[in-house]
Amino acid sequence: MSLIANIIRSEVRDLSAYHVPDSAGFVKLDAMENPYTLSTEMQQALAERLARVGLNRYPVPSYSALKSAIKRQLGVPPDYDLVLGNGSDELISMVSVACAKPGAKVLAPVPGFVMYAMSARLAGMEFVGVPLNADLSLDAAAMLAAIAEHQPAIIYLAYPNNPTGTLYDTADIEAILRAVGDTGVVIVDEAYQPFSPVSFMSRLAEFDNLLVMRTVSKLGLAGIRLGYMTGCPALLNEFEKVRPPYNINVLTEAAAEFMLEQVAVLDAQAAQICQQRSLLAAALAALPGVQVFPSAANFLLIRVPKAEQVFAKLLKQKILVKNVGKMHVLLENCLRITVSTPEENSLFLDAFSASL
Ligand code: PMP
After folding, report:
1. Is the pTM of the predicted complex or chain greater than 0.95?
2. Where does the record place the Aminotransferase class I/classII large domain (predicted)?
């Protein structure tokens, strides 16, 4: 259709829309969601809180109460400001918009989170993917060489990484931060921090080019869409300029404030998920031919002979995992499984063992 060719940029025409399979009626282990729902008492208290929200007014633009709650409950140093996003997906696109000078590049290890590349291309920037080692650890030498060659404006390090669950070595990240200097911003994406023993949040004062990005999605609030980013005040100030006004709606704001008052409930769920992760990893590793990669996130990456067939058999049993085999050569025959409740994990394990 010539209208499309006339008006739509080729970068957009070449993309496929982010695909999410229909999961109604499935045991849903494909999207790293927290499987727990709220107690009836909490649902009622939340409903009462939301009922008091004025829907006729725009949000208060400073979001100061929400930002204070995030700082207090989620371990952001009190002297740092935050930029808020409608999910961290929106933060990624804000960073792209702000940095997309002609010729600017974005660099990240691959396989990694798909939105880094998608957002870069949408903003007209080249994406440089640096392959991980075969054991899915960071190839630090290749990263440093690629940084020297391409001088990227943005470097993303998902810590831990999706879809591998890997934690990169702290010393490698430090070396990258130093090598990049003032030629680029290093975004340490801690989406899976609730399940990880480490964080770069305490290192902000040491590096002017470091931003830490997080989300409440994996903690149990994926539906409300709220991400936050902190770090060097001068950089945050620039990214704040491209934040769409009122991007966090009043219902998200109120629900987040309510849930952060009860963050202990979510923390306890994260601790249970970590326990289940160990049990599930051990059970999977005991099955013949199954390789389980170490994970510091709420999912496990496994390699299994004939992963396509296993995936199809699981689908027939109404169990949805993520088939990542086609994402990258390093992920051949790999499946990514969200760690869930003991009940759902054992449903998965039974169906999985039967499908081998
Ligand atoms: N970063 C990473 C590494 C992710 O895996 C995801 C979601 N899968 C996100 C960011 C986006 O999270 P959200 O937009 O839900 O905040």
Report:
1. yes
2. 27-351
